[in-house]
Amino acid sequence: MKLLLITNLFIWLLFAPLTSANTHTEYFIASYGNSATLTSIKENKTLITDSGIQNWHSASTPISHYFYLPSNSSFNVKLRAKVATGSSKIRVDYHQQSQIITLKNQQFQDIDLGTFKPSKAGYQQLKLTGITKTATTFADIQGIVLKIDKESAAPLYVKDDIYWGRRGPSVHLNYPIADTSKDYQWFYSELTVPKGYDHQGSYFMANGFAEGYFGMQVNSATERRVLFSVWSPFQTDDPAAIPVEMRIQQLAKGNNVYTGKFGNEGSGGQSYLVFPWQAEQRYRFLLKVNPAEQVANHTDYSAYFYDPIAAKWLFIASFRRPTTSTYVARPHSFLENFIPDAGQYERKALYSNQWLRDTQGQWHALNTAVFSYDATAAKQARMDYQGGSEGSGFYLRNTGFFTGPTKLHSEFERPVSQAPEINLSALPNN
């Protein structure tokens, strides 16, 4: 009997997991999708590749790794890195803690950076700054290894769908229509972008509808646009694949307005006006939607943008959509970043004074909004999204790795303001 007990004890000791391995879980957080530099979009694209951090030449270009902790549990972190030749020194900053590490290994190794206690839950930032090097680059970095107590909530970060993860989450304000018995021909709203939030790659979409969208973009360091698009009812990302009878037809366009096709996120007709809109300035958007009078089962869409400096409405374009007979449906607004190498910059917009005008000429306030987000937020790849009420309207905020996500389907209200005064019969049509 004693021999049997001793044998069983020996077998249990032989195969029992080590205590340290049994109490912690390790997570590899790849640089690609979870790191960025704030120096420039161009430099970020050069440094952050699908193999990790490469081509890191400049000491004036710090690189940060980001991950989200649902709780403020302590964690251990290691840097998976190597140098091509020689050696380099890198400063590692986490909150108020700083250390300098020396890299000499020419094969990837996990360099222990220590154990840290975050001050609060939410996004954590591990910042790397090059100090000295004998080679041409400071390091090649694949990512970080995070070890955390297995009883603690797992960290959140971009694991797949890297393109969308780097772009960051898109957020929406959906405006419920109180009286659905009426036909609404006009959709009006106002939009202001606060100073410092108008980063390249931003689309501040003011007047969204079931078949398209209308808002303003930051397309480059020197170009901004007012963009209006209508999707084709034929589902494809390739505009050339749309049958002739299912294509969006251009009816008219305004002065200096470009029109053409778009693809990649559905396909259809697109128009835009290059316009130097500015932060802190309030802009007005007006959309007309109604079934076409000349042909059955088609709908016409027209967009107008108010230039506050010239104090006049500008006509953007009119499109006709086949196999559709509708008035304004599913009014909404959204905020997105469309450049993957610009998802590290925070964006915010203020949306206000939303109204619908019915076919009898009466204006109806849209003074409630329901918050939603895209698949990147839904899968918790990125948690930097927010929406709410602010001042006399609503706001949306996203990207930039800030902490404070808003619950899906949160509802907000704004004060009811005065209906817009617009001479609709005097609107331009070219």
Structure description:
With 430 residues, the protein is mostly beta strands. It is 8% helix and 46% strand. The protein is built from 5 helices and 29 strands. The strands form 5 sheets. A 9-stranded antiparallel beta sheet has the order 18-19-16-15-14-23-12-26-29. Strands 13, 17, 20, 21, 22, 24, 25, 27 and 28 form a 9-stranded antiparallel beta sheet that branches. A 5-stranded antiparallel beta sheet has the order 2-5-10-7-8, with no helix packed on it. A hairpin with a 5-residue loop joins strand 15 (212-218) and strand 16 (224-231). The radius of gyration is 27 Å and the shape is elongated.
Number of helices: 5
Strand arrangement within the widest β-sheet reads: 18-19-16-15-14-23-12-26-29
In terms of structural class, how would the helical and strand content be classed? mainly beta
**Strand residue percentage:** over 45%
Q: Alpha-carbon distance between the termini?
A: 99 Å
The count of domains is 2
CA-based shape: elongated
What's the quick description here?
The chain is mainly β. It contains 5 helices and 29 strands.
Which key phrases capture this entry?
430 residues; mainly beta; Jelly Rolls; 2 domains; nine-stranded antiparallel sheet; 8% helix; disordered N terminus
Topology:
Elements: H1 2-15, H2 19-23, E1 24-30, E2 35-36, H3 41-47, E3 48-49, E4 52-53, E5 63-69, E6 75-82, E7 88-94, E8 97-103, E9 109-116, E10 122-133, E11 140-149, H4 162-167, E12 171-174, E13 184-192, E14 202-208, E15 212-218, E16 224-231, E17 249-253, E18 257-262, E19 268-274, E20 283-291, E21 298-307, E22 312-322, E23 332-337, E24 347-358, E25 363-365, E26 368-373, H5 375-378, E27 385-390, E28 393-398, E29 411-413
Antiparallel strand pairs: 1-11, 2-5, 3-4, 5-10, 6-9, 6-11, 7-8, 7-10, 12-23, 12-26, 13-20, 13-24, 14-15, 14-23, 15-16, 16-19, 17-22, 18-19, 20-21, 21-22, 24-25, 24-28, 26-29, 27-28
